[in-house]
Amino acid sequence: xxxxxxxxxxxxxxxxxxxxxxxxxxxxxxxxxxxxxxxxxxxxxxxxxxxxxxxxxxxxxxxxxxxxxxxxxxxxxxxxxxxxxxxxxxxxxxxxxxxxxxxxxxxxxxxxxxxxxxxxxxxxxxxxxxxxxxxxxxxxxxxxxxxxxxxxxxxxxxxxxxxxxxxxxxxxxxxxxxxxxxxxxxxxxxxxxxxxxxxxxxxxxxxxxxxxxxxxxxxxxxxxxxxxxxxxxxxxxxxxxxxxxxxxxxxxxxxxxxxxxxxxxxxxxxxxxxxxxxxxxxxxxxxxxxxxxxxxxxxxxxxxxxxxxxxxxxxxxxxxxxxxxxxxxxxxxxxxxxxxxxxxxxxxxxxxxxxxxxxxxxx
Amino acid sequence: xxxxxxxxxxxxxxxxxxxxxxxxxxxxxxxxxxxxxxxxxxxxxxxxxxxxxxxxxxxxxxxxxxxxxxxxxxxxxxxxxxxxxxxxxxxxxxxxxxxxxxxxxxxxxxxxxxxxxxxxxxxxxxxxxxxxxxxxxxxxxxxxxxxxxxxxxxxxxxxxxxxxxxxxxxxxxxxxxxxxxxxxxxxxxxxxxxxxxxxxxxxxxxxxxxxxxxxxxxxxxxxxxxxxxxxxxxxxxxxxxxxxxxxxxxxxxxxxxxxxxxxxxxxxxxxxxxxxxxxxxxxxxxxxxxxxxxxxxxxxxx
Lengths: 363, 302
Description:
The complex is a heterodimer.
Chain A: H1 5-35, H2 43-51, H3 67-103, H4 115-128, H5 140-160, H6 168-192, H7 197-204, H8 213-232, H9 234-242, H10 244-249, H11 254-276, H12 282-294, H13 298-322, E1 327-328, H14 331-362
Helix pairs in contact in A: 1-3, 1-13, 2-3, 3-8, 3-11, 3-12, 3-13, 4-5, 4-6, 4-7, 4-11, 5-6, 5-11, 8-11, 8-13, 12-13, 12-14, 13-14
Chain B: H1 8-22, E1 32-37, E2 43-48, E3 53-55, H2 58-66, E4 73-75, H3 99-105, E5 109-113, H4 118-126, E6 131-134, H5 139-152, H6 156-184, E7 188-192, E8 194-195, E9 198-199, H7 206-213, E10 217-218, E11 229-230, H8 232-238, E12 242-245, H9 250-253, H10 263-266, E13 270-272, H11 276-279, H12 285-296
Parallel strand pairs in B: 3-4, 3-5, 5-6, 7-10, 7-12, 12-13
Antiparallel strand pairs in B: 1-2, 8-9
Helix pairs in contact in B: 5-6, 6-12, 7-12
């Protein structure tokens, strides 16, 4: 079947249109989130503080109000947190969309490969042994979590027999086995360390509390690199979804492509879990919603999922840090609470829509 | 020994009366049976003299040793690290207690914590082992717990002396704190329990109460939870004069960019305090109180 060039370009325009809309929406959500928080900051001061940081524009913006404390709150507390929410939400959602396509399994999420269990074990060890921080501004927990999740990745790949011929089922099984083993080790450590149970539980629920630019700098390189790889591989992923043989005829080495895709998704997952804890539902639900709205073409689905994941987590974290202020709710609790009913709503609407279409056809 | 003790009912009435009214002003009962009501409202009957006691919480172990019962303690938990002698006692559990081990010891009394150990308390009671459940929620509850433990172990005099000594110490600190507060006001205090996520101590915790008694103001005193995840921007806005850490080195607190503008960081009033003397409901809470007074109002203890 040969595609009409016109259709293809129309398609590309459609892709561009959605990405631009989503990006604008993300920027808007980020600005609003910067203005909302436990400490109320007047909107005029928020814009003034933010604009004064933009080169060239800054000289036209006057300094208003009691900016010192507000500036710290917005630039040092909220902004790094919002950036981190974008990075983590985007990574988890992008990895989820990729793995759902790769495994052809709607239940696949970024944690299916066991990476989160590695991060959880690393964090548990760091918390229960009260490991002192080695890098200024960065506690030992994310560092330990990242190292442990990368080690977990290596073990899962080794058990699944990479390099060589890869079977997706072997990969899944190896991830599940490693994951349950590590959870058991972690439960044992938790049981033995009665003193730090509460801190470990809070970390496991996923939280962006008390994060600074050090965390952003830690996660950003891996997240950006991994996501670029995923988006570049989107076309290959489309072909792999047709089947290994079909992909081969169209010039893609499926074995090779699968390993690269899996590696990139593991990397972004490891980076985000180690700084944010195990934030659930983002990597499962956002890609599904995007697939329902935009269709299965990964060239559109992946970038759209990344941006939408960012939007979703920024919103979730804003609720998490304001709802019961001055206390905070672990953001993982919010994403699960809000994500599940919203997902249900989208599923119902799609069903209603399909029924409606069928009726149209019949008429 | 005594004629009345041969009639159990009368003995029970007398001991209960002595618990309720006399508050320890009777000579130590050294044999017979004591009955008290514990923190769960259960009637606990203990045969005196008590020769073998198992403590299944670090705070209880500290109370028992403070009452001079160290030699009678025949079982503790892995977490019981104070006083030094407690570490060499046989262990009966970590977070979960080993019921078989406790049954094997077959102690005259087990001292437990009501709010955390209900299943263990029930199991041990069903095995016929007397279990005393303590559940102090504030400083004066702790003193009552000490009195109660003194009663069931026939150590009423020791308990009375200890409680009196602790009360005097508390009153002394309260007086000094009041003087300091009249002079320089209440410093705002932030207690950093953990940094990732940021956790502090809210109302209902001993930390919150001790800060208030020692003349300070807990900036998380208005949160609806005991151990909340706390908002960093609120820490910056409420601008604590003093930061108390329990695990983190004080040097690590202010290296985080957003923290450097907080008053406590500018004046370097950041202190680390051993969490055991701030959170364990035992006699050492008074040491924690004194340490907080010294941190919040330096020089007021002469």
